[in-house]
Amino acid sequence: MGTEENGNGRREIGLTNHDDEAAIEKEEEMEIEETNQMSRRRKKSKKETMEEGREEEETMPIEKVFEGKQVPTWREQLTFRAMMVAAFLSVMFNFIVMKLSLTTGIIPSLNIAAGLLGFFFVRLWTKALEIMGFLRQPFTRQENTVIQTCVVASSGIAFSGGFGSYLFGMSERIAQQATEANDAQNIKDPRLGWMIGFLFVVSFLGLFSLVPLRKIMIIDYKLIYPSGTATAFLINGFHTPQGAKLAKKQVKTLGTFFTFSFLWRFFQWFYSPNDQCGFQAFPSLGLKAYDNTFYFDFSAAYVGVGMICPYIVNISILLGAILSWGIMWPLIGKKEGSWYPANLESSDLHGLQGYRVFIAIALILGDGLYNFVKVLSRIIFSFISTARSKGSRSTLPISDDDRPNTTTPPISFDDRRRTEFFMKDQIPNLIAFGGYVAIAAISIASLPHIFHQLKWYYVLIAYTFAPVLAFCNAYGAGLTDWSLASAYGKLAILIIGAWAGASNGGVVAGLAACGVMMSIVSTASDLMQDFKTGYLTLASPRSMFVSQIIGTAMGCVIAPSVFWLFYNAFNDLGLPGSEYPAPYASIYRGIAILGVDGFRSLPKHCLTFCYIFFAAAVVVNLVRDFSGKKVARFMPLPMAMAIPFYIGAYFAIDMCVGSLILFAWEMKNKAQADAFGPAVASGLICGDGIYTLPQSVLAVAKVKAPICMKFLSRQINDKVDAFISAS
Question: Residue 397 has what pLDDT?
């Protein structure tokens, strides 16, 4: 018997003969009782058995399952193997997030994949050590939580670092696509050194801004943090006997589709020496539809993204693609020479590209502003309601109708145990306040040397208001699971950009200020999500905080290095129509130009369209929030609709194929689809994403595919054949 192996913390003292006999008799009685129960259950219907099993799971407190297991100290949760696995997964996930950021900008939740792969790799590690007799510390759910936290913190830098948005938007490659503000003052090309330095001085501040409020947010207000809660239930499930078996099957499924996705991309490479060849140029819906970007490009990654994203997101994207590329752009294209000059470059913002970019910006700003006001009003309403409830402890957040629950429910066993461990390892307020002030001072002093357009007083003002905005974002994420980091970033672009002005490098100043604000509010929200996960898995807040710091430090090095590889490997990175168009880079730069130049940068009638779509975004949100659920669930999401306005419809087709696969799977076997759908989707995304590493290496080495698979119309093909015959 190895109690050290199962981690219950009790010492082995040996058993007497009497104890042996009693134990054997008790075991036999338990076996008989179990057999009788199985016999009785066989007589019941399958439905009754499933309902009974669900009732038993619901009534059994999760912490009762783990009650006999010793909770490791915060230092024991931060193991060497956990950091090694986290570092390996961080590289993988940074490639995945970077690829998604530079293609469509849609980043699905990868928490499930991080938790699942972390469980798999450490379980392999511990199993090997156990066989060799060297296992000293069992794998716990707290260690699993630490790995997931570190990986998500690291890969999150690939998003909040702005490599597909504000940071790349500063570059000359993006600036050349517009005629405004493309002078040297408003351009800063990427360099590995300054990107790493910039991330180190801005990415840690958010971790210190809300640490003193962790008890208020998690215990007093009982904020839900749906993503953090879902991740905790996933990890808790992994470490039960039944959950471990399911997790092994899920990992096997993920590995199978990871391999398929990777090999499929490798196969496609042989036919794709450039962006105009290969399976991504397959006119699956016809040549006319292909000219308007309606085609299936055989991307396993976006089929996987479609399986993870809710149906309404994918339908909204398809609706936006049909509205823009199916109706608006062909009609506006006929106004060439009337509404805008003829023979302009396809990327010129004074032409059709200007309508694409600025109408998308109007939709994004309308949706972002509405949700900002909505979340802020919910926060204010919650605090007012709390202040009015005299003597009663309000538990926030609240019911669906926004009314606080003023009753005080009895404290459950789970809550009592979780609160005990959550309050055990305090993070001193001196560290939090001192860390914020010290990092802010370093940042204020160093950022003007990285961006001379960004004056020190711009940064000081941003850091003065940042904790309040970080609190609003973290509180709002706890209520709704929405992080509005990008909305705060766009606000910073407009304010700082207009303050600085185009002649003083207002575009770069605004984009840099966006990075400062986004990093703070995004990491603060992520930290609270992780604190909620740690609260539900009994992981120490101190180990979670340290894991966040380590993961953030990893991301500050890994993310810019991965982007630098992409930047040097693909010469057309950021150009419309390329494999990696980086749509949000042009959109963020367009917002900055709008901030410094005003509306005079827009082509004819574009401002009217912007007003219409801004108002439409607000109206659609109002209808969704104030109509019944039957109507609301069919209302599209303006933010999702805006994405294809700029980059095209092809990825909407991919994502809808993913939705169709999942829908058919759920119709056939919903339980199986719920259990293995995320694993299949994660495998498709991870395999396709990690392939970008060898793809980048081949591109840097100037190795091109041997075959160009291309499709021509019959008339053009006849001309080609005639030309070849004549020659």
Answer: 39
Angstrom distance (rounded) from CA 461 to CA 444: 10
Nearest to 384 by CA among 368, 402, 367: 402
Planar angle of CA 645, 650, 651, nearest 5 degrees? 85
Peptide bond into 397 cis (omega under 30): yes
The burial class, CB within 10 Å (0-12 / 13-18 / 19+), for 11 is: exposed
**Hey, what are 580's tokens?**
């990696």
8 Å CB contact between 118 and 86: yes
pLDDT tens for 289-344 read 888 889 898 888 889 888 888 888 889 989 999 999 999 999 998 888 888 888 87
Among residues 417, 386, 390, which one has the least CA distance to residue 402? Answer: 386
Token pair recorded at residue 227: 């993503």
Q: How far apart are CA 303 and CA 264, in angstroms?
A: 13
Round to whole Å and give the CA distance between 585 and 566. 15
CA distance 95 to 81: 22
Measured on CA atoms in the order 500, 503, 504, 505, is the torsion positive or negative?
A: positive
The amino acid present at 81, given as its one-letter code, is R
- Calpha distance 361→7 (Å, rounded): 54
Q: What's the burial of 82, exposed, middle or buried (CB within 10 Å: 0-12/13-18/19+)?
A: buried
* Residue 564: both structure tokens together: 């630098």
pLDDT the model gives residue 482? 65
Residues in the chain, overall count? 727
CA 446 to CA 431: how far, in whole Å?
Answer: 22
The set of residues, in sequence order, having a beta carbon less than 8 Å from that of 516 and lying 6+ positions away, is: 202, 443, 447, 459, 462, 463, 466, 492
* CB distance 355 to 345 below 8 Å: no
Q: 10-residue block means of pLDDT along the chain (727 residues)?
A: 34 36 49 48 44 45 78 90 92 90 78 79 79 78 92 90 92 84 87 94 88 80 77 83 78 88 91 83 86 88 86 90 92 88 76 84 82 75 66 41 47 83 83 89 94 92 85 74 76 88 89 92 87 90 92 95 92 84 87 80 84 92 85 85 84 90 93 88 85 84 87 84 79
| Spatial CA neighbour of 507 closest among 661, 352, 349 | 349
Find all residues with CB under 8 Å of 83, minimum gap 6, and list them: 150, 550
Neighbour-count burial of 630, counting CB atoms closer than 10 A to its CB (0-12 exposed, 13-18 middle, 19+ buried): exposed
Identify the pLDDT of residue 2: 38
**DSSP 8-state secondary structure symbol assigned to residue 275:** T
- Closest among 481, 572, 470 to 206, alpha carbons compared: 470
